[in-house]
Design goal:
Radius of gyration: 21 Å
Bound molecules: iron/sulfur cluster
CATH architecture of the largest domain: 3-Layer(aba) Sandwich
CATH topology of the largest domain: Rossmann fold
Shape: globular
Strand order of the largest sheet: 6-5-7-9-8
Number of helices: 16
Helix content: 40-55%
Order of helices and strands: HHEHEHEHEHEHEHEHEHEHEHEHEHEHH
Largest sheet: 5 strands, parallel
Number of strands: 13
Distance between the termini: 36 Å
């Protein structure tokens, strides 16, 4: 499925007219439509969201709220897939721009993961439990569901890892090596007990001995946004703002997380900063739209991005007001565009791994 070009009449609208029409159509669709918005969305889009959240909160919403006929998902592709998997059959999930993917999710292809699994099963007789981060394709979640594993998010990765260790000897963690490493370290594992699987190298770039000895096998994937933060940014921001507290996302590199005062998912970052006393100062290592929004909504705190280039999720940025309006206009005309529909056999097993996560954390 490819993204269609926007009709010409939409490309000529002013920002004000686009807003006005979107509000009008939104009202006309009423409770038939719910708009979900990820925290990294730009302000011009998030203002239309009925619910804002990280991928976990939005997935929970999709699993419990069955009232809306259409779910317009202002996030990226894997999030819309999860919403489709967890929502009811009669609900249709729409991604306003199909180009809104995720570079991290694209770093783990199903055939590569199957090869890795075959090698691990061959070299070790231990029980391996696969965990995949929410930021992965539905096919990877299904793979994990079939092999008695679970999905995790940046909020609940420690709980899911503990759950996996009660069931097995070894974890294959997909696809974000940084979240896997940071979480395992937090749980008391040493770096020497982890190895990285590079899907482009034979045996993932490991000897059989290294695979046997490691407790955590980390897939070599990363977030191109959070991966840009470096330990020197922590030093620089501390030098520029003495006394500032640094909070980073667990998708950041190990060295950045270690240098930070605290680490947390987007929901935890929001909670920390908004509940901190007025007058406190924060440097935040996450996507720039969330940092700017926190700064604007909390003028009595000093809030700055961890680096000064402003790390932007360019794929999330694909969702713009014109595409939101276009997809709503089409709904009003009775046409569903950009529906994200996961095939039944994939959805069935992906639901197993997603539901395991929801059970572990509740
Ligand atoms: S911030 Fe990183 S992990 Fe999140 S959607 Fe963007 S590229 Fe993917």
């Amino acid at each position: 499925m490819h993204q269609a070009l926007l009709p010409e009449h939409l490309t000529r609208l002013s920002d004000e007219e686009t807003d006005r029409r979107t509000t009008e159509i939104r009202d006309r669709l009423g409770s038939r439509l719910v708009v979900l918005g990820h925290h990294y969305q730009r302000d011009e889009v998030i203002k239309f969201a009925d619910l804002r959240g990280d991928s976990f909160k939005l997935a929970q919403w999709a699993a419990t709220r069955k009232d809306a006929e259409y779910i317009l998902f202002c996030g990226v592709h894997f999030m819309a897939e999860s919403a489709d998997i967890l929502s009811a059959d009669y609900q249709k999930v729409i991604l306003p721009d199909l180009n809104a993917g995720c570079s991290m999710a694209d770093m783990a292809a199903l055939d590569q993961v199957e090869t890795c699994w075959d090698v691990l099963e061959r070299v070790t007789s231990e029980r391996i439990v696969p965990i995949t981060y929410m930021n992965s394709a539905a096919g990877i979640k299904a793979f994990v569901g079939r092999r008695d594993g679970a999905v995790c998010t940046s909020s609940n990765a420690p709980a899911v890892m503990r759950w996996a260790l009660e069931r097995g000897d070894k974890i294959l963690f997909l696809p974000d090596q940084h979240l896997g490493r940071n979480t395992a370290y937090q749980l008391g594992f040493r770096l020497e007990e982890m190895t990285v699987w590079d899907p482009y190298l034979e045996h993932g770039g490991n000897t059989a001995r290294a695979l046997i000895d490691s407790r955590i096998v980390l897939w070599k994937g990363h977030c191109s946004v959070h991966g840009r933060f470096l330990p020197e940014h922590v030093d620089q921001v501390r030098a520029a703002y003495p006394g500032i507290r640094v909070i980073s996302h667990p998708e950041c590199r190990f060295e950045v997380v270690q240098a930070s005062d605290s680490v947390g998912s987007t929901e935890k970052i929001i909670e920390c900063v908004t509940q901190a006393p007025a007058g406190t100062a924060w440097a935040i290592g996450t996507e720039i739209h969330l940092v700017h929004r926190l700064r604007n909504e909390n003028p009595d705190r000093l809030i700055v991005p961890l680096d000064d280039c402003g790390c932007l999720c360019s794929t999330m940025f694909r969702i713009d007001p014109s595409h939101v309006l276009w997809s709503m206009e089409k709904l009003l005309e009775g046409e569903v565009v950009n529906q994200i529909a996961v095939p039944d056999d994939v959805a069935r097993w992906a639901r197993v791994s997603l539901n395991r996560m929801l059970e572990i954390t509740h």
